[in-house]
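User: what does the whole thing look like in 3D?
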Amino acid sequence: MYHVISTGTAVFVLYLICHFFYKSGFLSLADHRKIWNLILAVTFITTASAGLILALKVTYKWENSFFDSLLRWHVETGIAFSFTGIIHLLWHLTYFKNLFTYKKTLTEEIPVYKQSYTSKHFAANLFFIGYLSSSVQLLLMREILNISGGYELITGTFLASWLISSAAGSYYAGKSLFNNLKRINTFFAISPILSLIMMILFHRLYINPGETPSFLTSIIFNILVLFPFCFVSGFVFIKVLTAAKQNYIYNSGKSFSIETTGGIAAGLIVTLLTSGILNTYQILAISVIIFLLFLIMMYFKPDFNIRLISIAASIILILVSIWQGPDKFFRQILLKGINVESSSDTPYGNITKGIYELEESTYYNHRIIRWKNDEIEREENIHYAMLQHDNPEKILLISGDPSSCINEILKYNVKKIYYVERDPELVRTFMTENFPGKEIMAIQNVDAYSFIRKTHEKFDIVIMILPPPSTILLNRYYTKEFFENVKKKLNDGGIFACTPGSAENYYNYQSASLYSVIYNTLASVFKNILPVAGNKLYFISSDNELSTNICSLLEKRGIKNIYVSSDYLDDELIKMKSNEILSIIDYKTQINTIKRPIACFHFQSYNLTRDLGKIVPAFVIMLILFFLPVFTIKPVNFPMYSAAASLAGFEILILMSIQSSAGNIYHLTGLVIAAIMAGLSAGAWIKPFFPEKKHVKYSMLILLTFYLITGVIINRIILMNSPAVAVAILLVISLIPSFITGSIFKVMTETESTNQTPAGVYSSDLAGSALGFIAISGVTVPLAGSLNTMLIISGLIFIGFIFALMFQKY
Amino acid sequence: MKGRKISKREFLKRCSVVSAGFVCFSPEMLRENPFSEQKTGLKLAMYQEETPRGIMCRICPNECELKEGEVSKCNNRKVIKSKLYTMAYGNPCSVNIDPIEKKPFYHFFPGTRAYSIATAGCNLACLNCQNWSISQTSPDKTRNYTLPPEKVVEECLNLKCKSIAYTYSEPVSFYEYSYDTAVLAKAAGIKNVFKSNGYINREPLEKLCGVLDAANIDLKSFSESTYLRLSGGKLQPVLESLKIYRDNGVWLEITNLIVPTWTDKPEEIRNMCRWLYKNGFASTPLHFSRFYPVYKLEQLPPTPLNILNQAAKIAAEEGIQYIYIGNVPGNEMADTRCPSCNTTVIKRTGYRIDFNKITDGKCPSCGKKIDGIWN
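Assistant: Here's the predicted 3D structure for the full assembly of 1185 residues, as structure tokens:
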């Protein structure tokens, strides 16, 4: 028992006595405060030291009765410290109040740049800000997803941390008196390096070798790594935008438009360069070098010789980056202990080859995909499915390592093997070696979803060796739509096998939910589903009867294996395990579709159970992250917040619709983002089409109508006979809300009669986008489906409209 | 007017908070039991002691001191009305039949089957746990079978299993359940085997040894700091446990999972083998097991074979007589050889016994005793 009340009372009584002595003239105010400062210091030092020793005791398991007694001291002095702290807080209450109150009294003139810089200078500055921000975002996202596991929730957290840090920067810029654009831009140029240093430092300090951090750690990691760069990024944009506006060079809408164009350029260039031309850190280095060169040219006004030297130095540095890229160095740090041989980036991921104790292995996004002595993996991947067919001749292998799997496939009398893998670099990695059976392989370097839709071939067996549905992209391969297409391409009695996760000695509720969804989705297409619990969980599906007598079938065929054999397996035990899985399946649960990617949601729930104790703190941080901006956003800016959140959510829906329509997401993702950003850019540039005073309200009404109508017709568009026409319509459609949202931004930042600042509007825009991305992709789409999500988006716009009616009284 | 503005804003804030709570704390996201009712098995815990802070659990070296309502580190013990109760009694969440070689036991009734049970909970928190979905949770959060000790014995007899294996998670954390079951099993002529991390205090272990026939202990590392970082435990209590098992006549086998970059340093392996030899474990089978990326250690490669072979070579150099390599299908270090004449006395392929030439516990060629429990 601790003395909370008694210690607290003692502190207050002592304070009152001391205060009385001061009021009576025995003590001066200075001495009175000295005494209490001393008490505060002593209690703080005691509490902190005891706490530190206790932390060390727990961490290193020191056993000593002295350490145990420290706990009492830690708590008791902590109580005294807290109460003394409250007294100090009351002393300094006015100071703390002022911290959160914006005073307009101290304003610094924005320097006049008009004489020195033309509109082209500002345009270039804004363009490069947009370019550097977006390119660093895209590149850091790849790296952080590699470190943290790459599932959808992490992506959402990344985007949210990014946008909210930027929003904080732009919000603070609106209040800051720091207006030296040269210095601000210089800080911005070096801030990506700062973020990288933070990433490496925190990775070394807090993540163990080979460890995938928990969701909680990942959130904190995201925030800490992104904050330095994003804060400065939001800050610099607002400062340049304000300078441009105040020097009568550009209005806010045009500045936003130019910055967005820089972002579009970054998206296109980064996508192009990562197509096997350059790697992540090379592009990052080159982007920083180019920005620094621009900075020198614009703000440092060098003479001709210095210009020449700067350009030459930049070219040399770029060439050095290309010739001796820093990627291997960084990959070596991130994959602790592995001797990294090579690292290359593709639009789909990172491929690293490493050697550990003379054995080479290949990693895809930091997860091992190829290693020596992989008998268990390769035999299970192939034989559980192949044994179910009497005479498998034509096989489709979706992803996986063909050089390893083919040895197993060739144990059957196979005539043709189709291998489908989207990533060309991965295909090159796998196909470098000569291996038997290569001559009967047909390699299809396309997306499996598209391939299955378009191919005219029919197969006896389709084996899918893709990862579980951890993201919406991967979820496509576990949907009813995909399974239906697979079945259409199977010969009579054909077999389909997939592996949605690992087999365990116990399936928790979340994994049972995931496997129930996959099972039911398969069962909606195939007559028979057989779960086989190997090292991974395999779902074998067919319209023919399936058997758990793996060992008997092997014997009958005369196939000799190392692991999948009666040496390790037993038909009776296989059957028992299979029945156990069937017993945990919830046959009433819903099925997984493109429009309702519920499997992806369950996978993430399952993944969170790895750190049960950290789920609540993680969600508390996320709540704070998302809803803190709501408390800082002025009601007048809420229409911007809701329009941005809706647009972000709509972007996710368009991407999903394109998936189901065209079956190809990768290249079209870039197009969708480019279309939306172009719409924003155009909307922010072009003169408003409604009277300024009514523009926001009318625009919100149009958005509301648009989202409601789109919700109704989107399914019809998806189901059109011509996917190309459907995609074109979807792309055109995506221009409309983005254009209107851009024009809302323009009007809200340029209306002189209101008290909103570009900083306030921009931060509302970013915070809204953050909410839209994660809430729509992570929660509403999987749980409510796409149609209901459109209603939610419309509801959000309606709230924005109400706020526009209430607060935009100009 | 001012009041009106505030109230609108308040309205917005409240709406946001409520919707945030609704969206982010969706019952779907955090639900735990959609399928079945809870089946917890509360039973008064053994080895509890009152302390000034509360109740101390004396089963394992964690020695959790718990106040009313608090749950132990192993997630299995809870203080209710000033008494410590185990929540893991008669409610296993995982029940399987496994070949005894899978545990692995190579010198204990080869070729037999073990009726394997586990409840949720573990007193360590290994980053590479392959049973994390049961070890890192508690019995009130898992879907459990209702299987009291007498029923376990009955099922084991029905299924003709030679032994009951207390395994998967950590049997020390369901001590009362495993002890009571083992007592009944012993009376029914069934063998009891522990697959454990060896993280247990002397007194409960000595009591347990009275009913236990064999134990396979995971010796996770031979470095205190690695033990702490990898598993959250200490090395010394595990070494002590090994001695207690041996001194109490329980058949012992040791497993050392070699995790790349963590526990694969040759000096560390040599020190471990040296300690085993010096402390009388030369004839205790030592299984070097291959690691596969799992749970939190997903960004590591499987253990290279040459490291496993090197470890086996070091163990042989240090005088360990029975050395095996596990988790590597098709490897040659799965056979039992006579330490005297090197004759293969048991030939294994996978979990299958190709031949067992041991007669009366002795090598058929030279007559040397082959340590183990054979029949």
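In plain terms: The longest strand of chain B covers residues 251-258. Chain B has two domains: 43-86, 94-334.
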